[in-house]
Every structure is written in C-alpha cells, then in structure tokens.
Design a protein that fits this description.
Blueprint: H1 3-6, E1 10-14, H2 20-29, E2 35-39, H3 51-67, E3 72-75, H4 78-83, H5 85-91, E4 96-98, H6 100-110, E5 115-120, H7 122-127, H8 129-137, E6 142-147, H9 151-156, H10 163-178, E7 183-187, H11 195-202, E8 207-209, H12 211-225, E9 240-244, H13 248-258, E10 266-268
The chain binds D-glutamic acid.
D-glutamic acid is lined by residues 14-15, 18, 44-47, 77-79, 121, 124, 152, 188-190.
Amino acid sequence: MNRELAEAPIGVFDSGVGGLTVAREIMRNLPAEHIVYFGDTARLPYGSKSRETILMFSRQIIRFLKTQQVKAIVAACNTASAFALDEISKESDLPMIGVVKPGAQVAAQTTVNGRIGVIGTEGTVGSHFYREFIQDIAPAITVIEKACPLFVPLVEERWIHDTITHQVAERYLSELKEQQVDTLVLGCTHYPLLRSVIGEVMGESVTLVNPAYETAQELKRMLKAKDLANPGSDEKEFPYRFFVSDLAEKFKVFANSILPYDVGMTQKIDIEEY
Ligand code: DGL
C-alpha cells in the first residue's frame, strides 16, 4: 500500500448542502477517511439545469478537488451523477463513484413485486438514469419515476416535520402508492432528511432506499479493492474540510445541524477560476 496516498482525503461534491447526507454516511461508515467537501452554493439548483451545464460545473469542481490532492471522488449529487459522472470519470485517472448506481443496485435487489418508485429532481427523473440502471440489472422491473421539486426548498427551510411538507408529500407520492410500488428510491440528496414523512405517507410495506448510505458502502468496497483505504493516521486535527462557492456561513449552520461533527470553518472559493 502507498500509505501517503491512502491517507489522502476523499473529494465529495454536490450543488450545495444536500450532499452532506452522503458526507454524513461516509463519516459514520468510514470513520478513518478524511473528506474535502465542495458545495456549489452559488450555482444551485442543479436539478433544473441542462446536462451541458452540469457537465461544465462538474469538470470545474473536479479540477478544484484535484488541487486538494484527493485520492478518490464521490459525486454526491444525483443530478451530477446522472448527467456527468460517465464523462468526467473517463476524463480523469482518479477513481470516482456517484450516488445513482449504488441506489439503483440495492433497489433492484430489494423489490419483491418488481415495482420500484424513484423520486428526484426534474433533471434526475428526466434523465431516466435510475430506470436504465435498474432495468440493466433486471429488465422485467417496472420503474415509476416522479419529480418532487418542492422537497428541496422545504428541506432547506428546515420544514422537515411540517404539515405543509406532509401535504406536499401526499400529493407527490399518491401516484406511486396507486402504482403499488414496494420499493422507493430517495433519488435526491435532500430526501433522506424527509425519510420519516415519506415513510409515513408510503406506509410500512414500502422499503425506502437511501442512495447516500449505499454510496458509502460502495465507496468502502472500492477503496478496499484499490488498496486505498486509510489505515488511520495520527493527524486528525482537520479530518473534514468544507468549501463552497457562496454563502459560507449559511452552509456552516446547515452542516452543523445534520453532521455528527462540529464544522468550525467553511471556506468560500471562486469555482469559476478552475
Ligand atoms: N443535489 C441535488 C440532487 O441530488 C438536489 C439539489 C439541486 O437541485 O441542486 O439532485
């Protein structure tokens, strides 16, 4: 093992705060790993933008993360994973994973009645990437996709258990209930934070798949296979570093409300320079 390389951080990126749900699972499940997180808070949302734009943003972010000497990259954004991961991973020698494939794999293994629901941003749902991955694994599975764009602002407003959020969830999810899905993929970074409301609306018989958790498991397997897992270093003073393209203070407050770690500082950078 190249110890210096194994001790390098993992680069994790998202359009903003949502990818923190993925960072949180990496912190919980791979506690020896260090993280450099980038949230593109100046240019979110990604979910309503075109593939070309997301590809351009993702390329800039990869260039920035490389300056931080990361050993691997996690596209912690469903939209970026759907639109850009294939391209950017071909262009770089760094190992990369996204959130879509791990979520799709587990959903395909979980369903019993062969009917899976996928909820996400307009971009992710419109790309049909979850459906394609699921049907690559098991062509007979029916995948019903639904964009739920209002969930993101509701989470960012912290209206996680509000009646309004419940009503919005009822309205978005009624079609999936009628279609009798037995598995539902939370295909947007923010949705794991609405897990309890979504679970209540869908009912106990529906299994919710959290791609953030599955991505952390996939990352663990990938690091082990490539002999890149951090053996655990003594230098633990700043295991996690956070960068954003705007509103660093607001990001920090949100991060501290969901992470099992005290985010002391978030640094604003000009991502357009990369
Ligand atoms: N992070 C995005 C995703 O998972 C959601 C927020 C956005 O649209 O930027 O698709």
